[in-house]
Amino acid sequence: MPSFLSNSRSSGILAHITSLPGPYGIGDIGDSSFRFIDFLERCGQRFWQILPISPTDLHFDSSPYMSTSAFAGSPLLISPQGLVEEGWLDPGDLARPPAFSPYLTDYRQVSAYKNRLLTRSFQNFSTAYDRHYPEFIRRTPWLNDYALFMTLKEVYSGQPWYTWPPPLSHRQAEAMAEAEDRYSERIEYYLFEQYVFFRQWAKMKQYAQLNHISLIGDLPIYVGLDSCDVWANQSIFELDTETLKPIRVAGVPPDYFSTTGQRWGNPLYLWNDHDPGVGAALLKWWVDRFRAVFSMVEVTRVDHFRGFESYWAVPEIEETALNGTWVEGPGESFFNDIYKELGRLNIIAEDLGEITPEVHKLRDTLGFPGMKVLQFAFDGNPENPFLPYNFKTANCVVYTGTHDNDTSMGWFLSAVLSEQQRNTVKRFANRHMHDSSPINEDLIYLALSSTAALAIIPLQDLLGFGSDCRMNTPGVPAGNWRWRCDQNYLTDALADGFRELTSRFNRMGPPRSDGKGSLRKDS
User: Following DSSP, what letter does each residue of 486-503 receive, concatenated?
Assistant: First the structure.
């Protein structure tokens, strides 16, 4: 099948919304995003890649890959200034924000601050004066379950849903109706919270489109056990019917990142169940999920794509992922069924790690571009598939690194590389080992000059930052997802230099809308 990248060359920047500059402790989908879109446009970029934007949990280090919902938006990304613009807050409410760090997100502090602002906004909100609100509730099918789930999480002090009283954990109709009536006001708050998020997101997406910037989302293949998704759809997951806990959990065997593999702990889907009702429900859930994500972005990266061909199933009692087994996934027929409902989808297949020929065949049959990460290229093997001259097709996306890698500068200076490997990296960039040019610039040059149809550069690599700015270290349970970029680093000189390099390798976006700069938010 043809790829959405066919007959084009383009580039973009990887930066999660939480990392963007702003005065409120975390990047948001208001002014933070609008300014970054301006920066992308000045850089001549066509794409902005982000990480999942679902709600996060302090218990899981605020990881965007372990959410309470695959459909909801994170309230931490809501713009306080946007609440003022709607008339739900007074400007004075934002006059004295806490002394947030411009370089790191303190999720606990930000959560407390944003919750106060949203609570005040909810008190000032009136459905009687907002004709869009009832329509949003009506056309958002997952919303009522999510609002009830989050309310019950509060009622039961944050305990996992499978420990709630059985009538609620098993979703008995009478108990559900009673809870909806008893906690109706708090449920209404969570409905409002999501209304605000998606209202702001629509404005941000429209601004990106006006500036010819396409959004690349990120869709994790698995969902968290303690999530609304599992609670509301128990029949499609591999759960013990009595304890409601997983029988086996997701993960990967030993690889580049871990000698004992990674035991993620997510429940597995019942891909191979013989009950046609289960299969129909599972397909519907995935159709709804893809429909939701593509209503927000133009392209999405599917994390752990190989799980659709075969997945690593680990007995729940195991402490590591060593003793798992490979199980056949849903394969090509699954995507064909999705296409019957939604048409072709613009998907980037995350195909990193120990990948088999069968996974490559599935990816290529579906026409999905895979990923090429330059940090994996320099092991001394001239046939390494991540070396730019070994890209067998232009239908791929080249990265200097990803959110799971060290920054390119940190990687190059770390003990991971030997002196010989560092010399190899320099030689591939046509540099002498003692050349003082920053390695991040060399890798960006290699990425943009490659035959890959799309090149994505993490913001940290564009800036030349070191290991202290790394976004995530797989297998390390705390201290991730916190990095932020101060506005002072996003200079016109940086943007203009990147624009020239982008143009040199024929990856430029359309001409600027006014011949000089971007379409401003207030134009």
Answer: -GGGS-HHHHHHHHHHHH
Q: Is 31 a catalytic residue?
A: no
Residue 303 designated active-site: yes
> pLDDT tens digits for 269-293?
999 999 999 999 999 999 999 999 9
Domain for residue 456, yes or no? yes
**467 found inside a domain:** yes
Stretch 319-338: mean pLDDT, rounded? 96
Q: Which residues face 348 on adjacent strands?
A: 301
In the annotation, is 496 catalytic?
Answer: no
Question: How many separate domains does the chain show?
Answer: 1
223 domain-assigned: no
User: Annotated catalytic residue: which of 38, 41, 238, 350?
Assistant: 350
Rounded-to-integer distance, Cα 440 and Cα 446, Å: 10
Task: Report percent pLDDT > 90 for the chain.
Answer: 88
Q: Give the three-class secondary structure for 225.
A: coil
Residues 306, 311: Cα–Cα separation, whole Å = 7
pTM: 0.95
Q: What is the mean pLDDT of residues 38-57?
A: 97
Which of the residues 303, 351, 406, 441 is marked catalytic? 303
